[in-house]
Amino acid sequence: MSLSALWLLPAAAALLAACCGRQARAVALGAAAATLGMSLMPAWAGLDSLSRLSYAGPAWFYGIRYSVAVDGLSLPLLWLTAFLTLIVILFSWRGRFSSGYWAAFLALEAALMGVFLMRDLFFFYLFWEAALIPMFFIIGLWGSANRRHAAVKFFLFTFAGSVLMLLGFLVIVTQHHLATGVWTWDMELLKSPRPGGALGLASFLALVVGFGVKVPLVPLHTWLPDAHTEAPVGGSVMLAGVMLKMGVYGFLRVAIPFFPELCWRLLPWLGGVAAVGVIYGALCAMAQQDLKRLVAYSSVAHLGFCLLGIFSRTQEGLAGGSLQLLNHGLTTGALFLLVGALYERGHKRGLSDFGGLAGRAPWLTFFFGVSIFASIGLPGLNGFVGEFMSLAGMMVRLPVLALAGVIGVTLAAAYALPAFSAVFLAEPGEGSVSAMISDLSALEALTLAALVLPMLAIGLHPGPLLALLRSGVGGLAL
Amino acid sequence: MAIPGGVPLLLLPALAVLLAPVLALLFGFFILRPAAPRRTHLPILLSCAVVAACAVLIVSRVYLFGEGFDIPVAHWMVAGAWSVSFGLRVDGLSSVMLAMVAVVGGLIHLWACEYMAHDEGFSRFFLAFHLFFLSMIGLVLSNSYVELYLFWELTGLSSYLLIGHWYHKASARRAAFQAFMTNRIGDLGFFLALLILLRVFGDTRFLTLFRSLKAGAVGDPEAVTLAGWLLFWAACGKSAQFPLYFWLPDAMEGPTPVSALMHAATMVTAGIFLLVRSWPLIGGIPGLPAAIAAVGAFTALFAGVLAGTRRDLKRILAYSTVSHLGIMAFAIGLSQPACAIFHLVTHGFFKAALFLCAGNIAHALGQPSADLDQVGGLRKTMPLTFLCFALAAFSLAGIWPFAGFYSKDAILDAALAAGGWRALCGLLIGAVSAFYIFRMLFLTFFGPSPRQKGPAHFHEPGALGTVPVLFLSLGALSVGWLHNGFSTMLSRSGVPALPELSSRVTLLGSAAALAGVLLAYVLALGLPKWDWEWRERRPRLERWLAQDLGVKPAVAACAAFVRRLAGILGQGWDKNIWDRWFIEGWPPAALGLGELGQELAGGGLNDYLWWMAVAVAALLYGALRL
Amino acid sequence: MSSFLPIEALAPQLALAAGVVAALLAGMLKERPRGLLRAVAVSALLAAALLAGASLPSAHPPLLRLDRIGLCWQELFCLGALPLAVLMEEDEIPVALLFGSVLGMGLLAAAGSFLTLFLGLELMSLPAYLLVSRGRREEEAREAGLKYFFAGSTAGALFLLGMTLYYAASRSLALAPASGPLAQAGLALMGAAALFKIGAVPLHFWLPDAYEAADPEVAGFLSTSMKAAGVLLLMRLAELAPSSALARVLPAFGVMTMLAGAFLALRQQRLQRLLAYSSISHAGFMILGVGAWAAQGATGAGAAAVYYYLIAYLFMSNGAFAFLKTSGLSTRAQLRGYAQREPRLAALLAALLLSLGGVPPTAGFLAKLLILWETVRCGLYGAALAGALAALVSLGYYLALIRDAYFEPAAGQPPPAALRRHSSGERLVLLACAIPSALLGFFPWLAGGLAGVLSGL
Predict the structure, then answer these.
(1) Which of C391, C402, C448 is nearest residue A61 as measured by Cβ atoms?
(2) Does residue A21 sit in helix, strand or coil?
(3) Nearest CA to CA, how far is B552 from chain A (Å)?
(4) Which of A62, A286, B210, C379 has the smallest count of CB within 10 Å of its CB?
(5) Contact C284, C258 (CB under 8 A)
């Protein structure tokens, strides 16, 4: 039952935090720390014994069964969620937020933990959608200028994709029943007889759209810049750090295992969309004048790499792609924290609104520099390992997509460095708020150090993490 | 740490060479930078000393006992059967490079202590400078392409940090970004080559890769050919070959030690090192060496001509570096990698010396770089700098018995042996390089021409400023004499040895060089005002030459095109068309539909009943007909 | 006719009849204690529900036939009327009308022949017309009540015509399957009357005016119990001939109603009218559910999806209308910034709206999922897609309400009606509706239990 505690604790803490006014912040910190501790526990119990922790309740109604389990893929994502939630709570410690703010983040953590724990399609979908509610309120209540529009757009856009995905699930479950006479929503059991023919293709495409909206795949990505720009600091960190991973996790956990041949046959299309996403995201990022939108579009590009790796279905591609999930969580999380810090001090996000911060805020510059170079894939930092292995995997399958990926890597420097030099190195122009920007406080520096150190660690020694991830996704390799 | 069997003694210095800079950097960054920024350079100088000592030890062991090893040290990325690992490889080639980097790097570190003494970013400079030092050492010692790519990119990062050291200057920031992006475009080729090699061979370790190449067990020959061309493209990016050379002259925006060490002696030669290291791969690809020779020759001549028309001292030396890199590529193209490496080493010494002299001159003026108008007749007030500059100049021009002569002569020998356009280019290059270096020498140190300010307020720099320069210029004088020792070293690492010097070649080479010197003498001293007059007479030619014969506008046009494409895609399409119409168009459409529905039924009762009649009729029709 | 009807067959209806008498008597007392009427109403309804739950299926030809579905629906009617009983003002006439209407529904549920069916139908409709016309805004309520009456009586007439045609074909008044064009036509006409009662498009025009003019709690009752009765009537008809034209055309009506209801609701600025159109959209889902149920052979267990939808909708709709009564808000503009004024009530509203929108983990989500599941099971993929689209569009305006309440700054003075203190009864009803609708999505086994109950396990 201990795995269920991973999402029950934050959910209960969310209710508690919602009720008590002033101590909400303390409750949030305690719950987040406890959840992180508990999520680390399976690691000490030995990684090979992960399967022992799974629990499956009775199947009462048409095969729907509350079953939780953890494996090499979901464990790191659970760590990432718990880790980023703790970071966000620490980072917004000094902000005067109402109890609703802390409750919303705990509810969000509960939902996200649920997504990565559930092994039953019904509950997977239930937590998948439930995560939208807290994020909707986080963006809507504590966002910036036109947060209302961004919150509603975010909710409806993702809901549209998810409803389509639900229909896909229904078709899969029904066809499974027709084929075997057994009602089940369990991810393992549903793999065997797959709906073939046009219905199979239709349900696969429904899944691709449902997950694609979340990843985001390029044509379905326009909710991302608005949601990231308008969300508060914590909101955009969780949005970019974890919620984008739900889409790729969905591909790894549901779409590919359920339709392995279709995934293989449609590789040029799926890989093509991911590759287009990489280049499109980089080019769009180059055209942005708002820091948060720039980082948002860069997320589109980075997750394109994850998909390139995963669709290649090679050992290194799968391991690299899933590692890139965690890398992106760290680098983009750090970038959004820093941009948030700038916004809190100067209430501005434009590239031309700052300038000359290197002299004024050295620690802010250092952390921003490391995160920027990690995100453009400088070898030695974590971005490179993920991207390199993903592209090595895709090169084995479709070299032209690997070429697109490499062009994406090159373009990454083209949008990241001018932004860095405009904000930190250039002279402050008129209307610049650099005078108001003070350096990071000790607490903020600590949280960012907690994000930057793993970047270097993964960059130089990704071995253990890769082994863990491969134990989760290795089976999908062809 | 997978070290097979007995641990070769040589591994210890090799590890020390890598660990010393790392420790110095960590100590400097975390302890000295916050506490005593002004003393950050102390651990760094210590590490330079350790590196230099170990380098000498390694070179001597390799030269005397022919030792060497290629050992995987640790796994880096592992995914089942597929894996990439860190490793160390010490052989003739890497030990020679290591020695050159250690010695030249160490001297320039010393020189930088005095040059950068008054700079407010002192500790930041030294940390970045030593990071470059570490990455160059790592690059030289790495035993696989992926590891080499790691340090290759780190050199790119440190060059970005160092060129942009005085980041308050807009030109420095632009030059830093331009350097990084151009390197990055070169690295695009390297990245692709890595992926191809991994796909074909499954491992990019030099040992296994070249063994299977030699054994002919190549699964996909076209892919290997493409990988070879891409490696050449990467070398062009890093070693400033045409068309990716334009970032090097702008890189002079950085402080002089940066220009001296990185953009003259070591970093820019990484590309040449890459080509020589992958010679077994490149040598076997039909047409590639010829292309390398052509590009090298063209770059050498093109940059040589431009160097002869520049006015800023450091810019002249920058174009001279591009030209000499072209010469090295030309040597590789002539299937003489040993000559290329030998020239690389000699060039490292005399070019570093020239840069430091130019640095001393500019330092005396208190400016980052000096212009020909501001100097003239300096031999009276800066005799020692004049001596060092002259030694290095003679070496560059390739005049006997200077180091440049031996390496350039070896290349000329190969060029003449190859005959045809290669021979002509060999001679022309000799003449052109002699011309521009002596033009600079005469205009700077001899009789100030009427247009120049003269040697009024120039003075010799302090001890730290002159001692390293002296050493370097002595090196520029003497390094050539070790050439046969040199060729035995290189031959051990599977690279064909240096050709023997023949008197015919020496004669021809010296004649070409003397012709260059004579022309420079006539134009610089014979007609003192010539250099300024022709610029006034033909301003259009002046501007055309200033724009690198049209290359700079072309590059600017490409950059503008990419930005406009991004603008069209990012703002125009994504925000205003796709997002506004296709995505955010749905709610208004739904509202419109709702509006339409509203008009259908008014509030009146008869409307209700009419609609009921319609519904009942439909149901009845359905019931009776279906 | 050997014996009279056994008492236990009509026990729930008798309890309600006793309730009517008690209410009228209590009304005559001069100084009666406050809340007496409310106590009578609640106790009578609870008694009826318990009796319905306790009684066993039995058949008493020719007039009555009590099967599992009928009994479960009776419980539903009583539960649906409870919030109205609690929230109604202290007046014996509306209480009596309420009992009359619920009694009619009970009869309809227990009907064994067309006579009792029609009797139940009329008995439940007439009090509804009066309840609507007793709305606060006199003039508007009377007009809406009149319209509702005219349209309702036309539907009743249609039902009668259908019944006679069916009788012509089947030669007996019993609810027995019959074939032939006459029977099909009869079924079609009766089906039209049932669709009118549910408020299916294009027979829905009376609904928005009636729901808007009536008091919110009355509208809640109409949207839950009345609609459930309509659904039951439709199921009885579909049961007669599962493969008849009516059964086959139901999914089309369902899709039309879902989409039209959702799109029309987008424009509404008045909250009650918006909830009216949203209830039309939900009716579309119910009709689709009945259509899918009929297509799969109208088994008892199959009705679980529709029954669960009705239960979930009972909580959500009654909760939403109860919120309108408690908060006194009438237009979306007044809703702006409500969360700052009343955080707890706004939280309940948000839960209800999310449940109406079908967002997990709410009851509405599980309800919509079951209906879509049944639709997919019988292969109506187009209808399932339309259901998804309708859910999405409906979420649009539910989110807009939440956005107005939470994210918009309060604009101007709140309406006077919103300033009075909320009575404990109102708060109790709101909590009783919001909590289950927010969390039922977590417990799919509840729907499983229902399937078991309905199929008479």
Answers:
(1) C448
(2) coil
(3) 18
(4) C379
(5) yes
Query: Is C3 inside any structural domain?
Result: no
CB contact under 8 A, C359 and A156: no
> C173 with C253, same domain?
no
Contact B358, B445 (CB under 8 A): no
Residues C22 and C83 in one domain: yes
What amino acid is encoded at C392 in this protein? L
How far from each other are the two terminal CA atoms of chain A, in whole angstroms?
Answer: 34
Would you say residue A286 has pLDDT above 80?
A: yes
Answer yes or no: do C228 and C302 share one domain. Answer: no
- Domain end, chosen from C219, C240, C261, is at C240
How far apart are alpha carbons A39 and A80 in whole angstroms? 10
Q: Which residues pair with A68 in a beta bridge?
A: A55, A118
Exposure b/e, B71-107, CB count within 10 A at least 16 = b: bbbebbbbbeebbbbbbbbbbbbbbbbbbbbbbbbbb
Joined together, the tokens standing for residue A54 give 């799974």
* Neighbouring C-beta atoms of residue C155, cutoff 10 Å: 24
| Chain B contact present for C184, CB below 8 A | yes
Whole-number Å distance between alpha carbons of B518 and B433: 12
Contacting residues for A122 by C-beta, under 8 A, at least 6 apart? A64, A169, A185, C369, C444
Chain A residue with CA closest to B200: the answer is A396
Full DSSP string of A179-244: HHS----BTTGGGSS---HHHHHHHHHHHHHHHHHHTT-GGG-THHHHHHHHS-HHHHHHIIIIIH
Exposure string (b/e) for A457-466, b if CB count within 10 Å is 16 or more?
A: ebbbbbeebb
Its domain, for residue C391, covers 242-457
Classify residue C101: in a domain, yes or no. Answer: yes
Residue where one domain finishes, among candidates C221, C240, C259? C240
Q: Could you say which DSSP state residue B452 is in?
A: S
Cβ atoms of B454 and B448 closer than 8 Å = yes
The radius of gyration computed from the CA coordinates of chain A, to the nearest angstrom, equals 21
Whether residue C253 is found in the same domain as residue C293: yes
Angle formed at CA C58 by CA C56 and CA C61, multiple of 5 degrees: 160
Q: Please give the radius of gyration of chain B, using alpha carbons only, rounded to the nearest integer.
A: 31
**B613 lies within 8 A of chain C by CB:** no
| Each residue's pLDDT tens digit, B447-472 | 777 778 777 777 888 877 888 888 88
CA dihedral C273, C278, C282, C284 (to 10 degrees): 80
Residue keyed to tokens 């640095």: B359
One domain for residues C193 and C253: no
B583:A297 CB<8 A:
no
| Residues of chain C neighbouring A170 (CB-CB closer than 8 A) | 369, 372-373, 376, 384
Q: Tokens 């390694």, residue?
A: B58
Residue type, C327: S
Number of structural domains, chain C? 2
Asked, for residue C103, whether it belongs to a domain, the answer is yes
pLDDT for position B25: 92
Q: C99 and C13: one domain?
A: yes
Q: Which has the higher per-residue pLDDT, C296 or A116?
A: A116
Q: Tell me whether residue C2 is in a domain.
A: no
